[in-house]
Design a protein that fits this description.
Low-confidence stretches of chain A: none
Mean pLDDT of chain B: 90
Number of strands of chain B: 3
CATH class of the largest domain in chain A: Alpha Beta
Largest sheet of chain B: 3 strands, antiparallel
Helix content of chain A: 40-55%
Helix content of chain B: 25-40%
Strand order of the largest sheet of chain B: 1-2-3
Oligomer: heterodimer
CATH topology of chain B: Sufe protein. Chain: A
Number of domains of chain A: 2
Low-confidence stretches of chain B: 140-145
Bound molecules: pyridoxal-5'-phosphate
CATH architecture of chain B: Alpha-Beta Complex
Number of domains of chain B: 1
Number of strands of chain A: 12
Strand order of the largest sheet of chain A: 2-8-7-6-5-3-4
CATH topology of the largest domain in chain A: Aspartate Aminotransferase, domain 2
Number of helices of chain A: 14
Radius of gyration of chain B: 14 Å
CATH architecture of the largest domain in chain A: 3-Layer(aba) Sandwich
Number of helices of chain B: 5
Amino acid sequence: MRVYADNAATTHISDNALAEMIKYYGPEYENASSLHAYGQAAADALADARRRIAACLGCDERGIIFTSGGSEADNQALISAAHLGAKKGKKHLISTAVEHHAILHTLDKLKKEGFEVTLLPVDSKGRVTAGQVEDAIREDTALVSVMFANNEIGTVMPVKEIGAVCREKKVLFHTDAVQAAGHLRINVEEMNIDMLSVSAHKFHGPKGTGLLYAKRGIALESLICGGAQEKGKRAGTENLPAIMGMATALEDACRNLDEYTARVSALRDKVIDALSKIPRSIVNGDRENRLPNNVNMCFEGIEGESLLLMLDMYGIAASSGSACTSGSLDPSHVLLAIGLPHETAHGSLRLTFSEYTTEEEVDYIIDKVPGIVAKLRDMSPVWERMMKEEKANA
Amino acid sequence: MAMNYSEKVMDHFQNPRNVGKIENADGVGEVGNAKCGDIMKIYLKIDDGIITDVKFNTFGCASAIATSSMATELIKGKPVSEALKLTNQAVVEALDGLPPVKIHCSVLAEEAVKAAVKDYYDKNGIEYDPAEFADSGCDHCCRCD
Ligand SMILES: Cc1ncc(COP(=O)(O)O)c(C=O)c1O
């Protein structure tokens, strides 16, 4: 059996999105900047995509610019807001310890330019509070950037409350909604969001396409210089097929959101409840404020890469925050930020589902994981020591 | 294949040889650090200077398990003096290579064997040159802060 449970990494493209894209790769290939009638048809399509996306996000369509994905949107949001702030002498930026690297590395770059960055710590469930943000805001704060939902542990942040604090303090508020769009109800207006990043490939749209929303009045800085596309904020001929695919995928996701949430969160809870029966397992993240499709657990005494490869042998595609799989020397910064010791963080497993995930697939996972964990623990000296300690303490 | 592991690595990961423990082992060596993500423990049964049995326990990634398994295969039935000559390169070669980021696992396997032999020497009052058991420390694997 083949089970794809790595949808936070990327999703497969939906039939609807693909059909729409093929139309714009094939017969409707024209350049939206051309003045002839064909070009105008492309421009109309682009405007239509913007309208449809704005309706899903509850934002003003004029504030949307299309980008090459979530990373670019994050970069542009942070750099624009920082430089806008600097013009008024504001050189302080606030974010959190659990952001995606697209945020963290951009902040590192801004630090080198002389900005001061406060990374708020999170609680054991991976949340920051609006109160923390309020306390961190200073006279010279240019921007608060807090992710909507975490890509590793699925924790959903109190975005609306944080937005309200920022409004009150007159500080720009950006949220990286890459994992949230298409998975959670988003309303930019109601949630007090000034800037928002979205990436299409996380909700069954194409890769390499996303958007940045910025409220009217926020002068975005162009990272790509050239033509006057996207109101001069993002040069380069628009990737119309991908944008049309994104609009279609997001619209489908928004339309099906209630049904998706009910069905997939039930599958998620079934897996979490079943795998929690494994002794010395830990559920990472927040069971209440959680993405409907995210399971993240640690199994003490084992290492994540071995677990992943064993799952791979059974056809199950998952992911882990272990150092061995992150390509770095340390386990995931998110797992460390919620207070897990290195030893435990090495043994993490992330399973992320989609609307295509079936009950049968989830049952297969529930059937396979405990045996694999037991097999790895059987040969683990760390586990042996834990069991000895348990006996000694009993 | 995942991580670009060789077939041999995957075989030793999926079907590790000599997994387990030896009660009253003549030599036991444990190296690594759970914080870094790998620990290897090797048990030796030694009769007349020959390694008659060897078992291992490993916490770590697939290559840590595969290198432990291969190292035990390479020293089983050999004289202790020969086991001491086992190098991490020999383990890597026997596995048809390891991805560069995983070479440290083979170093750990070499060190685990040496640590077990050293334990055997210590327990039996056999003299040895301490230089032979120089600890490479954590440098090859990670920053342990
Ligand atoms: C929270 C978050 N932000 C940003 C990104 C980057 O998005 P993209 O891959 O479209 O550049 C990702 C994707 O992994 C993500 O999960």
